[in-house]
Amino acid sequence: MKKVQLTETVLRDANQSLMATRLPYADYADILPEMDKAGYYSVECWGGATFDSCLRYLGEDPWERLRNLRKNLPNTRLQMLLRGQNLLGYKHYHDDVVEKFVELSIKNGIDIIRIFDALNDFRNIKTALEATKKYATKRTIASGCISYTQSPVHTVEKYVSMCKELKSMGFETICLKDMAGTMSPFEAESLIKGIKDAVGNMPLILHTHCTTGMAYMTVMKAIDSGVDVVDTATSCFSNGTSQPATETMFYALQQYGIKTGLNEDVINKVNDYFKPIKQKYVDSGLINPKSMATDAQALVYKVPGGMLSNMIANLKDMKAMDKFDAALAEIPSVRKDLGYPPLVTPLSQMVGNQAVVNVLMGERYKQISTEVKNYFKGEYGIAPAPVNLELQAKIIGEGNEPVDCRIEDSKRTGQEFKDAKKALGDLARSEEDLMSYICYPGQTETFLKERKAKEENIAKYSIEEA
């Protein structure tokens, strides 16, 4: 009997896509023991934007969140999304930093590390893969991820070639990450059959979004074509810019006689638990109706869910929601200027933010972000296609060529860790604190100061009470 397994995304990408990753641990802590009985292939619960959001918005230690998840989901594979040499940030880090981050992730409870590079420049995922293999436990899986998009340079043959390369690098599974939900059923069929022919029995995973309305059709065609695992979200946190519904997919596959390993009673209890939580954020306005809707225009804009929810949040903060449609329409032009990069973090934020700035300023590239400048300088890797040469000349000077700035660190001096220790002093109590600072210095320092002040107040109160 055919078997297709499901990864549950509500703890990471589903809420990242619908509400910009603002779901605190306290909101879902009580349901974790029940989720542990569901029979998921994995629970995606960390990485992506969760690290930044914990420190910046939620007042949480992301490492402590991970340890709590591990404690309460002992029988379930915990999965994270890692941006290769970018880790969870927006720049390349030295190899020793990447290795230590992977080591600490596995040490604190991660089982599956899904590793990708925004440009599909696989030199940028090599160090993370090697570190995953080095610190692997019996449960560890290194999953190579391809950022899927459509453009004049992205073809089935190109993707099949990428998958062959991921297999030869030593990844154990391959994930097709369709972050904007633009993969059609037709494309899924030819792509997955081609990949399966090329990599044999290597497990193939599909991650897509419902943004354009095609996800359910695409997932079913992908399963028919041989995909082994699909990402889904408990139904109240599904659809819109999120993933297809877990319970719906379970029901449909069951009728075809396809086993999922899921416990129907448990996945229904999980959804019942999250219903009032979702409603709370709808009522508060944190989940915007635009994020819950289907927008076929995303087939043109190629905008992923997390990018859309963040753009909405930023425009609301600037009281400029009237510019939303114009900013959306500007995205394809900016993407073409940058050589058709897949719109996935950090490229999605870079392209989206530049599109917003172009519209707000009333002139294209009157103001250019530091990240876009660094992209043209070569600091993120090789663009999939030629970039706008006029814009490149404006940024790096006429006649100059971008330098390949893939950070090598053969000496492994540990300088970032020395600098972090010096900056934090006694605020840092662990390697995890230092790593948080290296990734997000300002947010981490603020968080650690608040943690220390809170503990001092508790101690003072206890003495007074005594």
Estimated structural class = alpha/beta
Main sheet record: 8 strands, parallel, barrel
Overall pLDDT level: 92
Please, how many helices?
22
Keywords:
466 residues, alpha/beta, eight-stranded parallel beta barrel, 22 helices, 8% strand
Can you describe what's shown?
- The chain is of the alpha/beta class.
- It has 22 helices and eight strands.
- It has helices spanning 10-19, 25-28, 32-35, 50-58, 62-72, 95-107, 126-134, 156-169, 185-199, 215-224, 246-255, 264-284, 289-292, 298-301, 305-317, 324-337, 347-361, 370-377, 389-396, 415-424, 431-439, 441-465, and strands at residues 5-8, 42-47, 78-82, 112-115, 141-147, 173-177, 204-207, 229-232.
- The chain has an eight-stranded parallel barrel, surrounded by five helices.
- Strand 6 (173-177), helix 9 and strand 7 form a beta-alpha-beta unit.
- Helix 8 runs parallel beside helix 9 (185-199), helix 9 packs parallel to helix 10 and helix 21 packs across helix 22 (441-465).
- The termini are far apart.
- The model has no long low-confidence stretch (mean pLDDT 92).
